[in-house]
Structures are given as structure tokens and as C-alpha cells.
């Protein structure tokens, strides 16, 4: 049951990253002029989806506190790298970002590291 804290931390982290990327893609490129940049960022910060991404980061931190109260950090923290793997896969699904051979090898090393790290 305590692993649910780690799982929810990862899930909320991934959600926040993907939703912010989605909304930034919809908003377009960062303008060149400083005044336009400020407006661009303020507009994004008022976006309910962006707010939900920040809220998910806050909730992830709360669940991380739960994880830290139940596991040594040396055990729990390597699982956080699963967020990299999940974001990479879902960025391919939702944003059509390529998963290259090098990224696949990197994901394999991350997963292998988690397996080895969680055994020790």
C-alpha cells in the first residue's frame, strides 16, 4: 500500500509535464519582444490546464512526503526516474515526438537501474 505514494507522485508529475507541454504547444512560440513575452507567460499562467499542471506538482510533493515517511530515499528516489520513461512514451503518443534508438537504450538503462536499485 505504501508504494501507492510513489506511484501517485510519478503519475501526478507526468500529468503536469504533459498538460503543460500540450498547452504551451497550443499557445505557440515564445514571442520576441519582452512585453509580448510577459503577456504570453501571464496568459499561460491563467490557463486552467496550466494551473492544473502546477496543482498536480503540488499534490505530487504531498504524496512524496508520504513516500518519504515510509521508505528510505535511496529506495524511493530511483522510482522517480520512471517519470522520464513514461513522459517519453506518452510524448510519442500525444505529440508524435520520435523515440530514437538512443532514447530506447536510455529508457532500458533507466528501467534496469530501477530494478537493480530496488533489489539492494
UniProtKB/TrEMBL annotation:
One of its GO terms (molecular function) is transmembrane transporter activity. It is found in: Cell membrane. Keywords: Cell membrane, Membrane, Transmembrane, Transmembrane helix. It is a multi-pass membrane protein. The chain crosses the membrane at residues 40-63, 75-95, 101-118. GO terms for cellular component: plasma membrane. The keyword Membrane applies. It comes from the Bacteria. PANTHER family: 4-AMINO-4-DEOXY-L-ARABINOSE-PHOSPHOUNDECAPRENOL FLIPPASE SUBUNIT ARNF-RELATED (PTHR30561:SF9), SMR FAMILY PROTON-DEPENDENT DRUG EFFLUX TRANSPORTER SUGE (PTHR30561). This is Membrane protein. It comes from Nostoc sphaeroides CCNUC1.
